[in-house]
Write a structure and sequence with these properties.
Blueprint: H1 2-9, E1 12-14, E2 22-23, E3 36-38, E4 46-47, E5 60-62, H2 73-77, E6 84-86, E7 108-113, E8 149-154
Parallel strand pairs: 1-3, 2-4, 3-5, 5-6, 6-7
Antiparallel strand pairs: 7-8
Amino acid sequence: FPYTTLFRSLRSLHMDNNRLTELGPDDLRGLVNLQHLILNNNQLMLISLGAFNDLLALEELDLSYNNLESIPWEAIQRMISLHTLSLDHNMIEYIPEGTFSLLQKLNRLVILIRQQQQGCAGCVRVYRRQLPRNILQVMSFARRSSRQGRQEINR
């Protein structure tokens, strides 16, 4: 099948500004050389557990401006070549401790934190110890009662 070779050699895939609502376990299968995956400005609500299994060479992942409450964090942990991760403008409320600990090349992380209104009782916490000390030194989120906290961290 001729498309198999094409997909295997694909290095960059821009599917931004569409109306994608979910990524299934087979949607990105075979894209083993993919380095840039841009999925911002969609309506993604669900990313299946196996959706990122073949994306171990990924260097840039942009999932910003979607409707995601969670993503397959285990797959993110295996993306050891990842240097840019954009998750801002989603509905993510929790990032498991240790998610970024193996990502030694990660030098740009953009996260939007949605906080609860009354005294920020359920604020999202991202622990400093989950980040490689030599790459990302500081990660703190301002507490705001009804606003969203956005942090962009560069090397």
